[in-house]
Amino acid sequence: FVKRDIISFYKQTIFGPIWFIVQPILTTIIYTFIFGNLAEISTDGIPKPLFYLIGITSWSYFSETFIKTSTIFRDNAAIFGKVYFPRVISPLSIAASNLIKFFIQFLIIIFLIIFYLIKGVHFKIDYHLIYLPVFILLMAIQGLGFGMIITALTTKYRDLVFLVTFGVQLMMYTTTVIYPLSTVKGNMYWIIALNPMTFIIEGIKYTISGYGIFSFYTFMYSILVSFLIFITGYIIFNKVEKTFIDTI
Fold this sequence. Notes:
Elements: H1 2-10, H2 19-38, H3 48-69, H4 72-75, H5 77-80, H6 89-118, H7 132-153, H8 160-173, H9 187-194, H10 198-209, H11 216-240
Helix pairs in contact: 1-6, 2-3, 3-6, 3-7, 6-7, 7-10, 7-11
């Protein structure tokens, strides 16, 4: 499944997996110009290209895992109807294949950090770096959890498929991808903070650069909400997969 997801998506492209690198770089350039230079939005002490690249790469992993998982039953109806295997393997394969893409893109972040270190930019990188794999795991299980909930619902309510991509885009603007949480004031702070992806994005930025909002409470909030979303999605997914073939 992992091999299929990667090869089938890029087999008819000229540049192939190079798009893994080109996409975040182009998006980072656009975000830096529009939000960093024109809008002059603060990046909380992180160099603008690095700030946006971290946010784009992290959000891309979550959103693609979410969106692709949300159509699992529809996309694999033919396979599920012919042979039995644990259905949860399909969403897990999506998270795994997207993780390969994430690690390739993460190499760009590493190169950019090295570039800024050579230029004399100071980063407060310390033992908090060990939390980075945890945040990556939390992104994966949130994407899987949301995706499994939606794919279970779309077996009866097909309209949800059309709302997912739009909804994910709206969700991005309520997450600290293009602005740091420290710049949000008033009631909007709590709206942004309650977004389950906000403190994960903030945590990734903090573990990599030393800038951002990270504490024991925000860390535990991210863990509890992520596992709650995943467990809910897993239960609904397992319940629906027994009968979905009759309604898909």
